[in-house]
Amino acid sequence: MKKSKTYTMKKIQITLVKSPIDRPERQKKTLQALGLNKLNATKQVEATEQILGMVRKVEHMITVEEVA
């Protein structure tokens, strides 16, 4: 029987600072999946492995800050 680990996930704030125009379709879809549809849009999400992977793919277009 496994014991479940209880730990809190960090929250990060992601802001779109560069336009996705003339970017590959895959990067545009990644931004949509993160919830960033407009320039300067900001979203707070939990820093899961999946989210951090998406952030790495579009890090040249966003800024990331850790939320306390």
Main traits of this protein?
2 helices, 28% helix, 68 residues, single chain, 25% strand, alpha+beta
Please describe what this structure looks like.
This protein has helices at 25-34, 49-57; strands at 11-16, 42-46, 62-67. By secondary structure, the protein is of the alpha+beta class. Helix content is 28%, strand content 25%. A 3-stranded antiparallel beta sheet has the order 2-1-3, with no helix packed on it. It has 2 helices and 3 strands. The longest helix has 10 residues, at 25-34.
Summarize the structure.
The chain is built from two helices and three strands; from the N terminus they run E-H-E-H-E.
> What is the alpha-carbon Rg in Å?
14 Å
> Order of SSEs, N→C?
EHEHE
Q: Report the sheet with the most strands, covering strand number, pairing sense and barrel closure.
A: 3 strands, antiparallel
Distance between the termini: 34 Å
Write the layout of secondary structure elements.
Blueprint: E1 11-16, H1 25-34, E2 42-46, H2 49-57, E3 62-67
Antiparallel strand pairs: 1-2, 1-3
Helix pairs in contact: 1-2
